[in-house]
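[agent] plan:
  1. take the single chain provided in the ticket
  2. run structure prediction with default settings
  3. attach structure tokens to the ticket
  4. add a short note for the reviewer (M.T.)
[agent] executing step 1
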Amino acid sequence: MRRTRKLVAAGCICAAMAVSMTAYAMPGATSLVTVAPRTVPSASSDHTTEQTQGETAAAPETQAAQEPETTGAAQAPETGALDQETAGRAEDKVAVGAASLTAASNVSVTASGPEGMISQAAVQMAAASPTEAPSPYKDVAVSQVNGDDDYVNIRDEASTEGEILGKIYNNCAATIEETVEKEDGTWYKIHSGSVDGYIKAEYFVTGDEAEALALKIGKMFGYVEEGGLRVRTEPTTESDIITTLWAGEKYTVVEQADGFVKLSLGDDDDGNPVTGYVAEQYVQVYVKFDKAISREEEQEMIEEAKRRAEEAEAAKKSSRRDAVVAYAKQFIGNPYVWGGGSLTRGTDCSGFTRGVLGHFGYGLSRTSGAQAGDGRQVPLNSVEPGDLIFYASGGRIYHVALYIGGGRVIHAIDEAHGIGISSMYWTTPYCAVDVIG
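[agent] step 2 finished; step 3 output follows
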């Protein structure tokens, strides 16, 4: 039997290659697309069993036990560190299911194992009466959106007047559930992600064009189907063994060639990338795509982005405030000079705060009374490091200090003390002002 290459799609699309002796189905309830069956290898294939001369054909687990580890083989990272799948925009991994081989074979097929793969027995039975496999891209579309916007709206009816249910961005995938002909052109009813709705066909490519595009834009991963699978340094059963993989593990696929799949195994202890080859029939290769997003999901994404931006800004401000305090402390012990403005040779209270905050780009007025109007007044019980604390007599501000946290301030105190640290309550504070924001 000819061996076939598995290529399964994700993100509501199957990137399975059109191969002989293959059956595809549309499991409607789960909105899965199609399946690439497991290859049934011939007994003489070295790539099928990784059988070297003198070895008995056996399951990968058995072989791993029988074959001694190669001396000097590199140690791969722990399993937990090897999963190379990442999150960008929300993605669906489509498990590719199986059903309905051919009417002539009259075979009842059930899915088995992770990803809903066709059972070995089912494929062998289908091979007994092979037929031409339908294209796995028959009902699959990849969005191609041109223009200023990189998305197109999905509506609740085949009309530009329909309510907007969500968006599909460029290079996303969808399953075509229905084709609708309207006066303004062809529309598809599609399913992508959590969205079911209508979109004009002009924004999609299908068939061979979709397949060619899918292999360029998709992210390819390999799911290990057989435990004890040996990883080798080269695409040959004669090369050294790096490590063994176990059923259920997932890795990024670097390339496929000559009956082997090259996997990325993460980094070694020195941070160098580790790759290795496994026999392709023991790895389910699938492609992941981005999908459409609903209006609710989009709003959640916007809110999440806003929250992260606010957290980043808060962290930035916190870091900036810490930097202001650290800079101010460098001048502890330097002299106090009435009317002075030098942080090293001598300064008064307002010259000190002006010099410290000016170093970070905050422009302050020259006198303490004027500085009280340079920022946003904040409650004294919620001041933060870097805020200015003012002191007054009879309502007239006469002194300013820089809050450094813990109920303390740093300031140019007087000629006897110079620049130093004291309690914020060395005398009753009048008000506080935030100039950092």
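[agent] step 4 note for reviewer: The longest strand covers residues 173-182.
[agent] ticket updated
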